[in-house]
Amino acid sequence: MKFRHAMCNEAFEHTPFAESCRTLRTVGYTGIEIAPFTLIEDPRDFTAAQRRDCRQTITDEGLDFVGLHWIMMSPKGLHATTPDSAVRARSWDHVAHLIDLCADLGDDGVIVFGSPKQRSSTGGMSAADATRHYIDGFAKLAPRAIERGVTLLVEPLSPGQSDVVTSLDEAAAIVKQIDSPGVRTMFDVHNAVDETEDHCALIERHFSLIRHVHVNEMDGRAPGTGDYDFRGLLETLARLNYQHWVSLEVFDFKPSPAAVAELSLRFLESESLQLA
C-alpha cells in the first residue's frame, strides 16, 4: 500500500513558505500540515487575499493541504478549559476562526487539537471539569466544522503532557459521546508513550474513528532514529485500508529540516516496501 505522506511545517518556520513547500515536494511528500503561528499570530488577521495566495502556493508547488496543528500557540493568553469563562470563550472563538482558515486553505482539512498547555486543568479546576469544558467546546463547534468541510480531532496526549484526554480509549469515547461526523480522533506515536496496550491493537479497535496519523519516534525524533516498530504500525494501517494522511511531526530538526524530512520519508518508504 502506498501511503499519503505529509509533514508538519513548523520545522521550516524560518524558511519562506513557497520554498518549504518546494522542499517537501522535491523530497517526495505530497501534503503539508500547517502550524498557524508560522503564518500569522492571529488567524483573524490573515486576510482573504493572503489565504488565497497561501492556498495557491501549496497547489503550485504540487502539494495538498492536510490541515492545522499546534493551534493554540498564538495569540497569547488562550486556554480552552480554564474556569475563566471569558478566556475560555475567546479561546474557542479562536478555534472557530481556525475552522474557517482551514477550510480556506484547502479541502477536507483536519484540525488537530493537541495544545497541552492550553487545555490542561488550571486555576484549581479538576481534570474532570477541564475535560468537560474540552468536550463542550468540540460539541459546540462540530456543526461549524461540518458546514466548512473540516474535521476536528481530539488528540490524546500522554499524561506527562496534559491531564485532559490521556489515552486513545478516552479520546474515542469522547468522539462517540459527541456523535458528530465533524469530530474524530487520531493516533500519534510520540503521544502514545504511556499507552499500556499494544499500539496496533489500539488502532484496530478504534480505527473507524481515526482520521489522522502522526509519525515520530516515541522521544519525538525522526522515524528510523530509534527502535519504534513502524513496520508493524504501517502493516496495521495497510491491512485496515487506511486512506488518510501519515504526517511527520518531529521535535528535533537536526541536522536540518530538509535532511530530517528526507531521512524520515526514505525510512518510512523502506518499511512500507517490506510489507509486500
Protein architecture, described:
This protein has 276 residues and is α/β, with parallel strands linked by helices. The protein has one domain (4-273): Divalent-metal-dependent TIM barrel enzymes (TIM Barrel), CATH 3.20.20. The chain has eight helices and eight strands. Strands 1-2-3-4-5-6-7-8 form an eight-stranded parallel beta barrel, surrounded by six helices. Strand 5 (151-154), helix 5 (168-178) and strand 6 form a beta-alpha-beta unit. The mean pLDDT is 97.
In short:
This protein is of the alpha/beta class and 276 residues long. The chain has eight helices and eight strands; from the N terminus they run E-H-E-H-E-H-E-H-E-H-E-H-E-H-E-H. An eight-stranded parallel β-barrel has the order 1-2-3-4-5-6-7-8, surrounded by six helices.
Name the descriptors.
eight-stranded parallel β-barrel; alpha/beta; 276 residues; TIM Barrel; 8 helices
Helix and strand arrangement:
Elements (H helix, E strand, L loop, with lengths): L3 E5 L8 H11 L3 E4 L13 H13 L3 E5 L16 H21 L4 E4 L13 H22 L2 E4 L13 H11 L4 E6 L10 H7 L4 E6 L14 H10 L5 E4 L8 H17 L3
Parallel strand pairs: 1-2, 1-8, 2-3, 3-4, 4-5, 5-6, 6-7, 7-8
Going across the biggest sheet, name each strand in turn: 1-2-3-4-5-6-7-8
Portion in helices: 40-55%
Number of domains: 1
Number of helices: 8
| Name of the CATH homologous superfamily | Divalent-metal-dependent TIM barrel enzymes
- The counted number of beta strands is 8
CATH fold type: TIM Barrel
Termini separation (Å)? Answer: 8 Å
- Main sheet characteristics: 8 strands, parallel, barrel
Spans of at least 5 consecutive residues with low confidence: none
Q: Give the amount of beta strand, in percent.
A: 5-15%
- Class computed from helices, strands and strand pairing: alpha/beta
Please identify the top-level CATH class: Alpha Beta
Instruction: Assign an overall shape.
Output: globular
What is the chain-wise order of helices and strands?
EHEHEHEHEHEHEHEH
Q: How would you state the average pLDDT, rounded?
A: 97
Query: What's the Cα radius of gyration?
Result: 18 Å
- What is the level-2 CATH architecture name? Alpha-Beta Barrel
